[in-house]
Amino acid sequence: MRVPFRGGDKQSPPKSPDDTMTLTEHLAELRTRIVRALLAVVIGVIIVLAFYDPVLRFLLQPYNDLCTARGPDFCVAQLYSLGPLEAFSARLSVSTYGGIILALPVIFWQIWRFIVPAMHAREKKYAIPFVLSSVFLFVLGAYIAYWTLDKALEFLISWGGSEVTATYQVNKYLSLVGLMVAAFGIAFEFPVLLVFLQLVGVVTPQTLLKGWRYAIMAVFVIAAVITPSGDPYSMLALAIPMSLFYLLAVAIGLVIQKRKRGREASA
User: What is the average pLDDT value for the chain, to the nearest integer?
Assistant: First the structure.
């Protein structure tokens, strides 16, 4: 038995055999997409491993600059490895995070290709904008996380007290950097998700616009919860762009809705 794999009007007949897929075919398609994404991640990991030293210096730069500016009584720029496997673990962590970031175009493309069969032909044309905007927003979020890292570290060290000099393990520092990049990068995909939900008709821009006050309040609460460092600088750097992205997503939804109504009126 074959089941329809299209969104929209349930009474619309499939236009081609590719518009219907069995459950087995769905699972096979999902497996193919996952394998391709994992292969891209593996290639990215290998590339980062080959350039590990400059990548590590780049990640340590905010902390080194902070310690240089505030002096040795505030923090010690040199990171420490307290176990025989810690340095090896740090290399694997950096390579894994970097490999995933390098593989993002392939990952987002595979995600889009998996959900495309459920869409109408008009919606499939958004594939390239979806992938490009997703990658751009993730990289933008990662950059803002990196940009605010020195302020976050300064806040955290200052709260330790004037009698405490910060000396960090390399793994714990890199874990904080990785969590910051992941939190900001994923949170910055928020407008892409909202536009997609409007595109497939799950929500309308009018509904989002009506509840914008509650949405922005929720954004600030979520930003406070998911910010790994917990400092106010990083929280505001995450919440303010997400609030602007919410309004931008609503504006894009209104444009899409207007064009859709125009096509329906002309038809």
Answer: 82
pLDDT of residue 203: 87
Q: Are 190 and 140 in contact (CB under 8 A)?
A: no
What confidence tens digit (pLDDT) does each residue in 137-189 have? 999 999 999 988 888 888 888 877 666 677 788 888 888 888 899 899 999 99
Give residue 45's pLDDT band: very low, low, confident or very high (50, 70, 90): very high
Rounded to the nearest 5 degrees, what angle is found at the Cα of 129, between the Cα atoms of 258 and 95?
A: 145
In the chain, alpha helices (H):
23-50, 52-70, 86-102, 104-115, 121-124, 127-147, 149-158, 170-187, 190-199, 205-210, 212-226, 232-266
Q: Quote the Cα angle for 124-130-132, to 5°.
A: 130
Query: Cα separation of 183 and 235, whole Å?
Result: 11
Which class for 38: exposed (0-12), middle (13-18), buried (19 or more C-beta within 10 A)?
middle
User: What values do phi and psi take at 166, rounded to 5?
Assistant: -80, 130
Please tell me the predicted confidence (pLDDT) of residue 5.
41
φ/ψ bin of 169: left (φ > 0), alpha (ψ from -120 to 50), beta (otherwise): beta
pLDDT above 60 for 29: yes
The residues near 21 (Cβ < 8 Å, ≥ 6 apart) are: 2, 3, 5, 29, 117
- CB neighbourhood size of 49 (10 A): 16
Cα dihedral 162, 167, 172, 173, rounded to 10, equals 80
Q: What is the dihedral of CA 43, 117, 199, 131, to 10 degrees?
A: 20
In the chain the first and final C-alpha atoms are separated, in Å, by 34
Structure token digits, residue 74: 């505030």
Q: How confident is the model at residue 11 (pLDDT cuts 50, 70, 90)?
A: very low
